[in-house]
Design goal:
248 residues; alpha/beta; TIM Barrel; eight-stranded parallel barrel; 10 helices; binds 2-phosphoglycolic acid
Amino acid sequence: MSAGRRPLVAGNWKMHKTAPEAADWCEAFAPLVSAASAEVAVCPSFVALDAAARALAGTAVWVAAQNVSEHEAGAHTGEVSVAMIATSGARGAIVGHSERRAMGETDGVVAARARRLLDHDLTPIVCVGESLAQREAGETEAWLTHQVHASLALVAPAESSRIAVAYEPIWAIGTGRTATPEIAREAIAHIRAVLGERLDAEAIRVLYGGSVTPENAAELMAQPDIDGALVGGASLDPAGFATIVLAA
Ligand code: PGA
């Protein structure tokens, strides 16, 4: 964490929790983090956004979607627009998660989604990260350079403080194989240097994601340049996720 940037801890529930389950989770969770110094967001499925946002009304915890369409509206069967998530209570969305990129989402699509969110005054949480093969081949920095530039190509420098970036090494997601604090710090320092080539890097929160747990969260988030966490599996339990939030 660094002076001037308030940490953000976001929970990515992936394809878990129905709307009633989301509401119950939020009611249990909100009181546990009322004294948190970090900003907190939860990312339910599209159909649970409204229930989560209602359950969190009057608290500082905000709600974000896990994805969103790059299109404003139109003949896009099965897609969900920024206006739709916004009116369901979302204030942002994850874009470019590796589980989405693995289904064919390109950097161009990710960039367009981030742009569309900003156009509606919502916060994009833009994910980047290398595969194990890329890390072992020594290609991590070159890949992150490419992904950061391409995924944020449509963000204007003056909008820097309105985005967050999540460094999520693919080999650490859902594997229990967390990046060491050193690996996370080095990669995020590189990402911030790349951000600084075009944007106001000091204004951008860069989170770490990949097997963050209540046990390892404090050490990861104590690293310089790591401004919070994007938490998958460990965000499903309100008490465990609250422990992570309070460690930031
Ligand atoms: P994980 O997922 O914490 O379960 O590894 C992180 C993510 O995919 O955002």
